[in-house]
Amino acid sequence: MLRVHDSVRTARHTRARGSEAGSEENDERESDEAMAGQKIRIRLKSYDHEVIDSSARKIVDTVTRAGATVVGPVPLPTEKNVFVVIRSPHKYKDSREHFEMRTHKRLIDIVDPTPKAVDSLMRLDLPADVNIEIKL
After folding, report:
1. Could you report the per-residue pLDDT of 35-94, keeping only the tens digit for each?
2. pTM for this prediction
3. Other C-beta atoms within 10 Å of 104: how many?
4. Backbone dihedral angles phi then psi of residue 103, each to the nearest 5 degrees
5. 77, 49 contact by CB (below 8 A)
6. In this structure, which of 2, 35, 71, 119 has its CB flanked by the most CB atoms within 10 Å?
């Protein structure tokens, strides 16, 4: 059983190397086959909801133009961090000021990505205040 697995592996390996003229076509076919069952998950985080929405729109437009299927953007719950500070330096402890930091999050799934879609995602220019996490 081990030998059969090894022979299949070597046959695939030799087929991929093939002739020089056909190797580019084989590489493209293999990359298409490798991407066929995958899903790319993109999580966006930002403090500004307008910037994160425009970034999500850019990603969706770019990927759909490249021919991949997109699910989203899905708005995730907004994370609120509240900081409470005493207004006076010495006295009046009951007088406090509240500061709030909101982190907006979006989720985008790319189902069956094409190599062209991945390449266009790599070239996409997004604002610096958007945090992007990409998982395969």
Report:
1. 567 899 999 999 999 999 999 999 999 999 988 899 989 999 999 999 999 999 888 888
2. 0.67
3. 20
4. -110, 115
5. no
6. 35
Note if the bond before 73 is cis, omega within 30 degrees. yes
Helices 115-123, 20-36: inter-axial angle, 10-degree rounding: 80
User: Over the stretch 92-125, which tens digit does the pLDDT of each residue have?
Assistant: 888 999 999 999 999 999 998 889 999 999 999 9
Q: Is 37-135 a domain of CATH 3.40.1400.10? A: no
Token pair recorded at residue 69: 């299927």
d(CA 132, CA 45): 7
Q: Which amino acid is at 16?
A: A
Angle at 112 between CA 106 and CA 114, to 5 degrees: 100
Residue 98, C-beta contacts closer than 8 angstroms, at least 6 positions apart: 82, 83, 84, 85
